[in-house]
């Protein structure tokens, strides 16, 4: 193609040169423009014909080549354009499929999580229900127990601390009813006197009553009760070691021990547990009955009769007895000592921690008059 262009340029140059020669021949060497013009106007200008020949074959081939290249380029572009959308479509499809798969996976995971949360909530509700049910049962059980305790307390309040219910005791030798259908009730917080005949008038009455009330001898008929419990239902250790505190006329204390030793002896034999050390309890109880510090450490047999009675009362109290029964506690004491001892018994009965039923068995009218309530068996 460049060769054809060069040929055309050569022909143009030749034509230009011929034209210039023709123009040079027609111009005068000298003279004015008007003369030249007139001269040229008067002469006939020779017509020069020229033609430009093109190499059609070459041009056609070049143009065909260019056209083919352009067509190929266009076809390639179209193919590329067609391929790119197809590729893009494939990638888009794959992306859509991936997105759809991811969406399905996410939905499945969400559903699984929802189900799991629902199961957890159900489990929590179930456990909460179980806990609530257990709590309700415990609450109901506690209420039932408290109600029972309240009923028992009301019932126990209606029961005396100590009582004899239609007790009859018949002497084996004589067949006499020493105690005949005897019913007595004793409540905590009160000092009682049970007036009996003197030993000269009836040598059996006082001793028999003391034996029955102290659980040494069962009645022939009837019941001896500690609150709501029959003596026959209780162990002797519980009766004498905790519920009953006995102060008989004889052998109430050991003369070979000191005061504290007597209380420790009783506490050790009771078989029960104590919240405080036993020596501390013994000292506290001895102080509560007015036992003098000056007599500490002395054997009981060396003490005065009043102090011996104090020790015997302290021994009856040291195991937290609910009922204290004393057989002629003022016997052998003078009037002042008797008054002092009776005042002590009144304090013990009215004590707040705890209150006790204190029962004196006596044939002495003066002692009976000191009590808050008297049962007379002399009639």
Automatic annotation (TrEMBL):
Residues 30-40 have a biased composition (Polar residues). It holds the Pfam family ABC_tran. Signal peptide: none annotated. Keywords: ATP-binding, Nucleotide-binding. Residues 162-379 form the ABC transporter domain. Residues 71-92 have a biased composition (Low complexity). Belongs to the ABC transporter superfamily. PANTHER family: IMPORT ATP-BINDING PROTEIN, LIPOPROTEIN-RELEASING SYSTEM ATP-BINDING PROTEIN LOLD. This is ABC transporter, ATP-binding protein. It comes from Bifidobacterium merycicum.
